[in-house]
Amino acid sequence: MNPQLIRFTRSVLSLVYLILIILSIPLAFDVGGIDCGLTFSFTICVLYFVLATARSLTRKNKYLRWVSVFYYFQYIAIPSILTLFLSYYSGKTKPRKFYVVELWTIFIVNSTPIFTILEGFCSLLSIQAIGQTVSWLTAYKSDSWLIVSLIASGSTITGGLYFLYRIYVLPITIDLVGSSLLGSLLTLTFGLGLFGIVSGKGSIIESSLLFAYIVRCIYETFPQLRDNANQAITDIFTNTRLLVEIPMLSPHLSNTISTILPFLAANVPASFRTMYEFLNVSITKLPIPVLFNFSYRITSFFAATKIIPALYHSTLYPSASPPRTPSLVRSRETSTASITSMSLSRSESNNSQASIHSTRNMRQQFSSDKPPSTIVRLIYSYSPCIIIPVYTHLLMSYHGELATHLKFWDVFGSGGSSIVQLPIHPVKFWNWVNMGTTLLLYLLELMGSNNHIDGNNALTNHWKVD
C-alpha cells in the first residue's frame, strides 16, 4: 500500500479521535456532572493506554497483528461509553465514586504547577525556534524575511500593548502585590527584549513573542481579565452581524438546496440522525475559552516534541554547520602568486567539501541512536494520555472545581509533616511562578548563547545551505 496514503489515513483518524475527545468530555461534565466527567475522562485515557500498548507489542508479530483492529474499536466505543456514564450518573441516587477515580481527581486537581510550568517551558522553546528560524532564513535565503519579521513583530507588539491598555480601562481592581509583580515582570520583559535585540543574542521576533506570551499569562492570572477577553473573543465568533454581511445565494441555487434538504432529511438513516444530534449537543456544550487555551497548550507541547530532538542532535555534533563553498578567486595576472592563491583556494574548497561529507557521516551516525527516537515515538504513540489530562484540568478550572488555597507540606512543623494552606489561589500563584521562570530561563539563554545574527545557532547549525 502507498506509504503516503497510510500516513494520510492515520492523520485523519488521529484528527477524528481528537474531535471525539474535544466534544465528548465537556458533554460528560455539563450533562452528567463533575464525577461523570472525571470518570469518563479516566476511562477513555486508560482505554487508549491499554489499546495503544497492545498495538505496539503485537505490531511486528504477523500472527498477532489482528489485535490492532481493537485499537480502532475505541472510535466507536467512546460515544457508547459516554452514553453509559450519562445514564449511570443521571439517576436519583448519587453513585459511589470509585477509588481509582478519586486518585485521578487528586492528580487533576493538583496538576496545576505541572501543566503551567511545562507550558511556559514549551512556549519558550517555540519562541526561540521561531526566532532562530527567521534568522537563518534572513542570513541564507532572502533579506525579505527580515521585513516579514519586522511586520509580524510590530503586529504582535501592537496587539500586546492593546491588551495591556485594556487592563487599565476595564473596571478591575488589582491589589498592591499584584500591581507590583505586574510592573516588575513587564519591566523585566522589556529589558530582556531590548538586551537580546541590541546584543544580537536574540531577535525582535523573539522579543515580541515573549512580550505577547507574558501578556497572555497576565490575563490568565486574573480571572476577571481572562473572562472579559474570552467573552470578547466569543462575541467575535458568535456575532450575528457577520451573518448579515454574507451575500445571499442566487435564487436558482437556493431553490435547489431547499429541494434537496427535505429529501435528504427524510431518507437519512436513524443512526446518522443520532450522530448529528450528538454532534449538535456536544458543540453547544463546548466552552470556547477552554478550547482556545487547550489549543494553545497542545500546540506548544507538540512543537516542543519537534524542537527537542533537533536540539539533541545539534549538541551531539555542534560543529556540523555546513559551510558555504568559498568562491574561487580568479585574477587576470598569471603570476606565480596568483597560481599559488588559486591552489590554496582549491585546497580550502576541498577541505570544505570534506567537512560537509564528514558532517553527513556524523549525522548518519547519530541519527541511528535509539534513545531519542524511541522517546519521541513513545510520546507520539501515547499523546492522548497527555491530551486528556490537560483537557480535563482546563475543564475543571472552567467549572471552578480546582483548589482555591495553595497547599504545601510543612515538614518542619512541631507535630511532624502536615499540609498547610495559604490564602493564595494556586492558579494565580503558579502563573506568577511561570512568568518568572520563563523570563529567568530566557535570561540564562541570552547570557550563555553566542551572537546568532548570521543564522548559525543550536537549532539551525545543521541545516542545508546552498
Automatic annotation (TrEMBL):
Residues 356-369 have a biased composition (Polar residues). It comes from the Eukaryota. One of its GO terms (biological process) is endoplasmic reticulum inheritance. The chain crosses the membrane at residues 12-32, 38-57, 69-91, 103-125, 145-165, 177-198. Keywords: Membrane, Transmembrane, Transmembrane helix. Residues 341-355 have a biased composition (Low complexity). One of its GO terms (cellular component) is endoplasmic reticulum membrane. Pfam families: ICE2. Residues 338-369 are annotated as: Disordered. This is ICE2-domain-containing protein.
